[in-house]
Design goal:
Elements lengths: L2 H18 L25 H8 L1 H11 L8 H6 L4 H13 L4 H15 L4 H10 L8 H13 L6 H8 L8 H13 L5 H10 L8 H14 L4 H6 L7 H13 L19 H5 L3 H9 L3 H17 L15 H5 L18
Length: about 350
């Protein structure tokens, strides 16, 4: 569904709601929800009960505070474009979310998602994936969406990211900006590469920065892989354990070699994408040329080996051995900047 169609749909629902209300135009950002379902204590409050007992008094209060009331009903959800079944599912979901914030922000959240250009079925699916979205304020939702646009997620990409990983709209802007700054400043990804990472691996915004740096350093120094190949292989969709286990298995079978300072190896290393993206059967037959039994035994042994090692946060790299001539060379993979250099602790 296009944004224009979604906007008309929300506008139609708004006009219908406003026309049926004695309080005038609808204010989505400041709405009090009054349910019509039996047994849903979440929405029922002394305020709503008093409004039914004394509508004239309630109208005066709303008129003074300029906070018009609106109802979340099955009909209002149907008016927004949901089917009867979808409306019931959303209504029941809001009732189950603990706390009053879901009741307070449900309608504005739905409206914001529709304006984003999502269809009713897509909205339902992402809310089922992430019920926490019901509790996000409309203003926060809009700010987070706008921030993602500024980071390069244009129309189409933005909708796919939200549909695939709706949790990204529950993450504070400050957290997202911190992760973006880390990728740019510590890992030396270009602006476009950061956009691609957010598009393909949005869960990175919730990953621990220490573990993130550990994984990046491992792939950069131990495997000798540059930033462009990391992005292409969608590295940040995989855990550090998955990366290390497959790499070490290949290394000990003589099928992978850490490049020297000039990036040279005596064998042709498989590309990172073929190592990570393939399922286990394909990885073993096409890349590792091993049997499932061999890999199973190796996994047990390597797990025991790692368990016996001391926990550490940063991989030691042989960056001290880089000569000045090599450090001055521009790395085309990182947009003209020299390759990632490990910063020494003073």
């Amino acid at each position: 569904m296009g944004i224009a169609v979604a906007a008309r749909q929300v506008l139609r629902w708004t006009v219908r709601t406003a026309a049926s209300s004695p309080l005038g135009p609808l204010n989505l950002g400041r709405c009090h929800l009054q349910p019509q379902c039996v047994g849903c204590g979440l929405f029922c409050s002394s305020t709503s009960r008093s409004s039914r007992q004394s509508p004239q008094h309630n109208y005066k209060l709303n008129h003074v505070s300029e906070k018009p009331a609106t109802e979340l009903s099955l009909q209002s959800l149907v008016d927004m474009g949901f089917t009867d079944t979808q409306a019931e599912q959303i209504y029941e979901a809001v009732c189950k979310v603990r706390g009053g914030s879901a009741a307070k922000h449900a309608l504005s959240t739905l409206a914001a998602l529709f304006v984003l250009g999502l269809s009713p079925s897509s909205v339902l699916k992402l809310l089922q994936k992430c019920p926490q979205l019901y509790t996000v304020k409309e203003s926060q939702l809009q700010q987070r969406i706008e921030n993602l646009r500024k980071l390069g997620l244009v129309e189409g990409s933005l909708q796919r990211v939200v549909a695939y990983y709706p949790q990204i709209l529950t993450v504070p802007m400050k957290t997202v900006k911190t992760v973006v700054a880390f990728l740019r400043e510590k890992c030396l990804f270009t602006v476009q590469q950061v956009t691609d990472i957010l598009r393909d691996s949005p869960a990175i915004v919730l990953e621990d920065l220490g573990q993130l740096e550990y994984k990046f350093q491992y792939v950069y120094f131990r495997m000798g892989v540059k930033q462009a190949e990391m992005v292409k292989s969608r590295l940040f969709r995989f855990t550090l354990e998955d990366v290390r286990c497959r790499h070490c298995f290949l290394e000990r079978r003589g099928l992978y070699q850490t490049p020297d300072k000039k990036g040279r190896t005596t064998i042709a290393n498989p590309i990172l994408d073929s190592i990570l993206s393939a399922n286990q059967d394909t990885f073993l037959t096409a890349v590792a040329k091993a049997s499932p039994e061999e890999y199973e035994v190796f996994q047990r042994l390597i797990a025991r080996e790692w368990q016996g090692q001391e926990e550490y946060g940063i991989i030691e790299a042989d960056s001290d051995d880089y000569d000045e001539e090599e450090e001055d060379e521009e790395d085309e993979e990182t947009g003209g900047k020299a390759g990632y250099r490990k910063r020494r602790n003073k």
